[in-house]
Design a protein that fits this description.
Strand content: 25-35%
Order of helices and strands: HEEHEEEEEEHEEEEEEEEH
Radius of gyration: 17 Å
Distance between the termini: 35 Å
Shape: globular
Helix content: under 10%
Number of strands: 16
Structural class: mainly beta
């Protein structure tokens, strides 16, 4: 086990559950009225580290990348994705659907993007989403998932993430199998790295955080609450557990944070039960364009 993934901590951070969900996915200025494009949700000290390119290129750690999209209005955005099958990746719906429900004009998936280099790159040519448009109500964020199809079988190069146990037949118990568990993520924060010497590569180098925690589930919004340090660009990051160096398993899908009237906040994630039925069906069909999926 890598030293980064072995130093797990468990922090108890109580938060009053309130009000406004803010998107962290796209580097776009006008995502929602209260979004601060450069705002960070760093809980306590910043526990992110910069993993080496060599460490990341081993399977299945290589199954993470940066999704670059051009919206219908011409603006560009960045999110994180995880390879979850031979030719499919997992990200957030708000990364690929705008307020009118339009998909990107173009999108590229950069596997293990590392400054000016990457392990592999592919275009994206199909989308299956949990929402028909950018989330408009707090309750919609529980379905903030998207499956993207690559034009090449990136999974043959990277391997892909598996999943921990989940409740296949009880959506009301979504997230119950992972609450209280330590977790990790690899993503592409827009403010990262914070080292001034690497400022020229900010937003294009990955961050790793090991040993943050899935703290609970919001009873009304039905999203999971976690204390990982996330900023713009990390939307679409899988929260995962490492059963071994060659067995990474998705626990939830990071998608933003809840802000509180007192200025504090907590990170949120979509439970497995919301998107795993779609992943399983798309794996079975090879992500054929005619595949229809459910959005529980």
């Amino acid at each position: 086990m890598s030293q980064n993934l072995n130093c797990l901590k468990f922090l108890t951070k109580s938060r009053r559950l309130a009000a406004t969900i803010l998107s962290l996915g796209s580097c776009l200025a006008a995502i929602a009225p209260t979004v601060q494009p450069t705002r960070a949700n760093i809980i306590g000290q910043d526990d992110r580290v910069l993993p080496s390119y060599q460490w990341l290129t081993a399977r299945p750690r290589a199954a993470v990348g940066q999704l670059e999209t051009q919206r219908a209005d011409g603006k560009w955005g960045h999110c994180t994705f995880t390879v979850v099958g031979r030719n499919i990746g997992l990200t957030n719906s708000h990364c690929v659907r705008d307020e009118q429900g339009r998909i990107p004009v173009q999108a590229k998936a950069y596997v293990v993007r590392y400054g000016t280099t990457q392990l592999a790159v592919a275009n994206v040519n199909a989308y299956w989403t949990g929402l028909a448009a950018f989330p408009k109500t707090p309750e919609e964020w529980r379905r903030d998932w998207a499956i993207i199809r690559f034009t090449t079988n990136l999974g043959d190069t990277t391997g892909w993430y598996g999943t921990v146990e989940w409740n296949r037949n009880d959506i009301n118990s979504a997230g119950a199998t992972v609450v209280g568990q330590p977790t990790n993520y690899i993503g592409y924060p827009g403010d990262w790295p914070t080292d001034p010497a690497l400022k020229a590569y900010q937003g294009y180098l990955p961050a790793l955080q090991g040993g943050c925690n899935i703290l609970g589930k919001h009873p009304q919004l039905e999203v999971l609450l976690h204390d990982c340090d996330i900023t713009q660009g990390t939307s679409g990051s899988s929260l995962f557990t490492a059963a071994s160096e060659i067995d990474f398993r998705t626990m939830a899908l990071n998608n933003g944070f809840i802000a509180y009237p007192d200025g504090t906040s907590i990170s949120i994630a979509v439970p497995l039960e919301r998107f795993m039925p779609a992943i399983l069906k798309l794996r079975a069909t090879g992500a054929a364009s005619s595949t229809t999926v459910i959005a529980p």
